Amino acid sequence: xxxxxxxxxxxxxxxxxxxxxxxxxxxxxxxxxxxxxxxxxxxxxxxxxxxxxxxxxxxxxxxxxxxxxxxxxxxxxxxxxxxxxxxxxxxxxxxxxxxxxxxxxxxxxxxxxxxxxxxxxxxxxxxxxxxxxxxxxxxxxxxxxxxxxxxxxxxxxxxxxxxxxxxxxxxxxxxxxxxxxxxxxxxxxxxxxxxxxxxxxxxxxxxxxxxxxxxxxxxxxxxxxxxxxxx
Length: 231
Ligand SMILES: NC(=O)c1ccc[n+]([C@@H]2O[C@H](COP(=O)([O-])OP(=O)(O)OC[C@H]3O[C@@H](n4cnc5c(N)ncnc54)[C@H](OP(=O)(O)O)[C@@H]3O)[C@@H](O)[C@H]2O)c1
Prior knowledge:
It is a single chain. The protein is an alpha/beta fold. It has a single domain, classed as 3-Layer(aba) Sandwich (Rossmann fold), CATH 3.40.50. 40% of the residues lie in helices and 16% in strands. It has helices spanning 12-23, 39-45, 61-70, 99-119, 121-126, 151-172, 199-212, and strands spanning 3-6, 27-32, 51-55, 78-81, 92-93, 96-97, 131-135, 177-182, 220-223. Strand 1, helix 1 and strand 2 (27-32) form a beta-alpha-beta unit. Helix 3 packs parallel to helix 4 (99-119) and helix 4 runs parallel beside helix 6 (151-172). The relative contact order is 0.14. The site of NADP nicotinamide-adenine-dinucleotide phosphate has 28 residues, from helix 1. NADP nicotinamide-adenine-dinucleotide phosphate (NAP) binds next to helix 1.
């Protein structure tokens, strides 16, 4: 059965990804900051031997290296960089931009997914499907920005997009497909209660894009329905 590693798997889209892949019989390495508090994820594990829960704060570089070493003999079909943060809304208004929290959001949304790609490159290269997937957002699109605001979130995800586009060139020779996905606006803690989409629909759509993406589509930015998003 194929194997996937998911960051931020304890709630929201990450939890739903874990749920759907387990249901399909995949081996799921579900990472979260606090496994002891990850009740919904622990619940998924009951009766599903192929769920492995790992403690990982994605900006803990040593912890990331240690996890990669611990899983050294486990090929991964898909590395799914899902963990992300928006940052405090009040800190990211022009005129009152706060530097330290901006740097924190940059570490989580931009640097950490790329460090994950470095750490887990051998695992993905050893897998059959060879895919590295990054959950981005349409809010990162420069072309699609008609509203402004959200400086931390937009800039760090736009930087993520550039980084993964670069990565597509670096890992293409190893046969690894790199994909940026926009989940839609989804009802999670981040998306809020007004969001029109539910996680199961968004995740089912993204899973289709992950399954069908070929090396020829590497470095592309798609939404959950497979529509190309302009950078
Ligand atoms: N929901 C939407 O409408 C929407 C739209 C576009 C893009 N996205 C993207 O989709 C992804 C998932 O979002 P979501 O809506 O599921 O958000 P969410 O419900 O807020 O969940 C975020 C997840 O990321 C984890 N996380 C945050 N910082 C972390 C860190 N330093 N180390 C490890 N894990 C960390 C959280 O863990 P804790 O529980 O420990 O905090 C949580 O599991 C994000 O990358 C987000 O930018 C979401």
